[in-house]
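Reagents: none. Just compute today. dihydrofolate reductase.
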Amino acid sequence: MGIGIKGDLPWRLKTEMEYFTRMTTETKDKNKKNVVLMGRRTWDCLPETYRPLRNRINMVLTSQLMNYGDKAIVCTSIPNALEIITKIQNEVERVWVIGGSKVYKEAMESPYFGRLYLTRIRKRFECDTFFPPIPNNFVLVQDPIVPEDIQEEKGIQFVYEVYEKR
Ligand SMILES: NC(=O)c1ccc[n+]([C@@H]2O[C@H](COP(=O)([O-])OP(=O)(O)OC[C@H]3O[C@@H](n4cnc5c(N)ncnc54)[C@H](OP(=O)(O)O)[C@@H]3O)[C@@H](O)[C@H]2O)c1
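Predicted 3D structure written out:
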């Protein structure tokens, strides 16, 4: 369940990154965008050239007084993030929580939580940051837009999983 090492991703998987971009960017309503909500360290980890994540509304959680200009909206807590999203809800289709550890945990505990889209990497990597335990009331479901077969890149196998809270 590792997700990070020394402020970076433990692996480089182009197809998985493309899947992340596709899933978090695509909207049914072309007049709307998705929000990507992340912790401050995850924002810091994004390479400058990919910041903000394109065609998505970037929101960063921090307890510090930060200002990312027009690149990202700063929020001080998950309730504060939800308040801001409520104000712009006509422009927003989905909210994707994209890490790190504590933000994932808080999001999964939220009554507004919908689904967990998790990529399970079938190889051991050294990690210092981990995905929180998946609660027992989460069940595997299918999503027609998510490939079900085993993926492979650079000899590394991985599978896309989707969980719903029951
Ligand atoms: N594999 C993946 O899919 C994936 C996804 C995301 C990240 N990662 C990796 O994970 C690592 C970063 O994750 P992380 O868990 O260390 O950090 P993180 O969650 O990205 O950031 C932690 C920071 O976010 C802020 N924060 C978190 N929850 C908050 C809340 N409820 N209210 C206000 N501020 C809040 C705080 O910022 P302040 O300290 O500024 O107050 C906190 O120090 C990196 O290695 C990254 O590459 C991997």
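The first helix runs from residue 14 to 25.
Action item: order primers for follow-up constructs.
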